[in-house]
Amino acid sequence: MRIDIVTIFPEFFDVLDLSLLGKARQSGLIELGVHNLRDHTHDRHHSVDDTPYGGGAGMVMKAEPWGAALDAILGAAPEAVATEAVATDAAAVATEAAATETPTAVNAADDGPILIFPSPAGAQFTQAMARELSLEQHLIFGCGRYEGIDQRVVDHYEARGRVRLVSLGDYVLNGGEVAVMAMIEAIGRLIPGVVGNPESLVEESHEDGLLEYPSYTKPSSWRGLDVPPVLLSGNHGAISTWRRQQQIERTERVRPDLMPPDLLPPANAKQSPS
Ligand code: ADE
What's the CATH code, domain 2-76+111-200? Predict the structure, then answer.
């Protein structure tokens, strides 16, 4: 998978050299490009933001540097993307693209890259979304700051390909960088080969809609707390049943909103009016 990130804080992503994702980069499973938005400005101060039209607090990120940065990643001048989008002779376009070795443009027709803008106004990022995105060839993340990015950037690329606004959760971060780090870790570990033992991906929280069961290791007794005896029994059927029960109990207690309706306990007969 190819991942490109546009940000005003490229150093933020230095940590992607570490751990499993660092190894995945070394082995070529993940190819990463981090791009400084300020490299696409032309004024003396390399400014990327300006005051909002209509007034209000804060600053808005300017469309021009974003357009230049994203076009550079897509390898197509804005005109080239537009021409491709309206071209009627598909064969001629394909030949021309091959001749000039134009990298894939954001284009729904050929399932090109997905452009992802982290935003508290986006759709909720979930394990299902991480799994879906882990199947893609090319993700481009645009990290907004301040009061967000000029809406026309989203509109422009949405008209030409696949764009998503994605939220990490119902709270506000100072910018998209932390959200992108979290998304890349969640997506990256689902790419085959990134996590050494793929079985460890199967029985974790959210994979089957429930939270995961509690885990224990040696010693069997610690500070007066014993490992549940069933886990020492060697009875695999009993262990499976216990773990499933723990998942259900934990999900019901901590995240009742995730409980599948068929696993909800039957309504308490005593409480219902007769
Ligand atoms: N940027 C600021 N807050 C965010 C959030 N909750 N999710 C994604 N990106 C953000």
Answer: 3.40.1280.10
